[in-house]
Amino acid sequence: MHVTEDLVRRRAEHNNCEIFSLEEISLHQQEIEKLEHLDKWCRDLKILYLQNNLIPKIENVGKLKKLEYLNVALNNIERVENLEGCEDLKKLDLTANFIGELSSIESLKCNIHLKELFLMGNPCTEFEGYRQFVVATLHQLKYLDSKEIERSERIKALQNYPEVKRKIREQEQTYLLRRAREKEEAQRRMQERKDEKQKQMDSKLGFDSPDSLQGKPNHAEGDGQQEGCRAVENDDEDRKFWEEPTPYTPESRLETHRYIEEKRRAKDNIRESKKREKTSWTLVTAEGKVLNVNVPKLHFSLKDDEENNQIILDLAVYRYLDTSLLDVDVQPTYIRVLVKGKPFQLVLPEEVKPDSSSAKRSQTTGHLVVTMPKAKEVILAKQKVSASIKHSDCNTQQKNTRRSGQIEKLEVDPSKYSFPDVTKIIQEQERTGQGPIKFQPQKVTEPKSCVDLENNEDVPPLI
User: I need a labelling partner for 239 at 20 to 30 A (CA). Which of 74, 84, 161, 290 fits?
Assistant: First the structure.
């Protein structure tokens, strides 16, 4: 995978996907095999994360004048180079790479602002005098592999620098010879694997040839046997690949990545091919009998509306399903609905009119409601029923008006009934309240004005 503009924009969401003014970007674990384009698109970069990729070489970063931190850990880098143009570089992380040419760090002398350098996990760290050589070569360093460089350590390293440099050169030559053998071994192993794959392809073509299929009466059984053989071969290939001892080199790391990627693509292709294969559903038998099918497994209800002489189907389609994914086909004796390509078919109890049918969706539940008028028209005595209903309504209205008229006449006639004068009672209480307070129980219990009253049982008592 290469660095693309789309990838950079997706990783620049914190900067509103603008790459020209980008100051920090993280491109880790993107399986990048070549570092490119960043020095043209992102000139203002200050922090660049590229760890855990497959980058074999540091390149195309020399124009990043403002770059302060570069992280290229866990890659396939074998030497330090092309960083002279990064004038503001302060921190460089080269952890867990394949740097064996330790003398290549001399190119970092131009980066006068470099304070921290990480080389742990590289083959060069196993060299005798590794730390002394780095400390004596790069005077501007303050920290090496997260450990502070003291002044006394630098003085001691400078005193023994010529001897340490000679030893480092000798160890480099030994390492480079070993790397050359490892590259030849990797190429040989890769060629053997290619030849083996070619043999497997030839054998598969021979297995699938028409001559080999003539002796097989059942093709389905042949397909099953073929799939079984392929599965066994894949398992054997995986076991052989992962159990084979190989040295940890840039070639083996790249080979492992490509093997995993190849297996992933093969699985994706198989999955896509299975999706493309349309499963055949039996909707109509060979005798012409229509079957009831509910492949999408949806709830439904079928209602016989005798009053309107129609059949109503309520299909519980998914609420947020796009209507374009529905296909309704109404036939005289059955209805078929395709929901995302999956058929729902139902035999109708009576024959209907397909041309007069209608399909609607509920805006609240999303259900599909199909209204299908019946082919046989039934004449109902709707007018008589409506007339009788009208007569009954008129009778009920007349009764209600009569009742209402009677209710209006049930008011109390003041000429027939006499009530005590409330004003007199209030005046009498006011009279008794004048002067000093006197308790008169006889006057209250024996009112004089009750002589003219008539005892009416329908009127409730006042007290």
Answer: 74
Q: DSSP for 55-73?
A: --S--S-TT-TT--EEE--
Q: Is the pLDDT of residue 117 over 90?
A: yes
DSSP 280-346: PP--B-TTS-B--EETT---EEEEEETTTTEEEEEE---TT--GGGEEEEE-SSEEEEEETTEEEEE
- 98, exposed or middle or buried, with CB in 10 Å at 0-12, 13-18, 19+? buried
Residue with tokens 């006639």: 413
CB count, 10 Å around CB of 325? 13
The rounded distance, in Å, linking the Cα atoms of 345 and 364 is: 24
Return the beta strands (E) in 24-94 as ranges: 24-26, 47-49, 69-71, 91-93
For the question of whether the overall pTM of this predicted structure is more than 0.90, the answer is no
Of 260, 124, 247, the residue nearest 185 (C-alpha): 247
Q: And the tokens for 289?
A: 């009998």
Adjacency order of strands within the sheet including 358-361 = 300-305, 310-315, 368-373, 358-361
Question: Rounded CA gap, 33 and 7, in Å?
Answer: 14
Sign of CA dihedral 414, 417, 423, 424: positive
The Cα-based distances of 146 to 74, 120, 210, 347, 374 in angstroms read 17, 9, 67, 77, 86
Q: Residue with structure tokens 């999956």?
A: 342
Cβ pair 326, 318 in contact under 8 A = no
Distance between alpha carbon 98 and the CA centroid of its chain, in Å?
A: 38
Q: What's the pLDDT tens digit per position in 40-62?
A: 999 999 999 999 999 999 999 98
CA distance 179 to 169: 15
